[in-house]
Amino acid sequence: MTSASPVRVLGIGGSLRDGSQSERALRIALGAAGELGVETELIPGPQLVLPFYDAAVSERTEQAVRLVEAVSRADGVIVVSPGYHGALSGLVKNALDYIEDLREDTRPYLDGRAVGVVAVAHGWQAAVTTLEQLRTITHALRGWATPLGGSINAAETKFDEAGGASDEKALRTLRLIGTQVAEHALLRSR
After folding, report:
1. pTM more than 0.90
2. Which residue, 1, 16, 31, 14, is CA-closest to 163?
3. pLDDT < 70 regions, the chain
4. Nearest by Cα to 13 from 76, 81, 77
5. Which of 15, 17, 109, 170 fits a disulfide with 141 by CB distance 3.0 to 4.6 angstroms?
6. What integer pLDDT is reported at residue 190 of this predicted model?
7. CB contact at 8 A, 178 and 30
8. How many whole angstroms separate alpha carbon 89 and alpha carbon 124?
9. What is the pLDDT of residue 18?
10. What is the C-alpha to C-alpha distance for residues 145 and 138, in angstroms, rounded to an integer?
11. Neighbours of 167 (CB within 10 A)
């Protein structure tokens, strides 16, 4: 990477519901990253509707190609998943499986990238187990999980359309995760 190329942070996640709590959380973290001067891109849940990942199939949909190319360009990534039944959503997991297509890339998988991970679930148990799964997947894909991850209990915290949250601590956590991803990407760009 040269100093002339823009530093990019990609946000992936949310659910199929427009304006979902997990998508709103992602927008807050991505917004904080953007405040540090990096370019940001968002691929929300409705754009993650992809065929089940199959490494044996070389044909990819337009949306799958867009996702893989966006990850390849990204210098940092923020992933937010809703927690369903104690685990990350199938929608987000399938999207992360497509990163396998970067195995031969000059920066394979998530190599060298900071990855901020956040789980939003209706209850602490699912929020915490989903966060741990996102960290494990990040490590398996050679990414650097940020020191701070976010477990957000949607039964206690609500996000609004204006980028706010009913819980100041959750808001600070999301902003710090976005900041950590952007700072890492900026440091590596030097």
Report:
1. yes
2. 31
3. 1-4
4. 81
5. 109
6. 84
7. yes
8. 16
9. 84
10. 6
11. 14
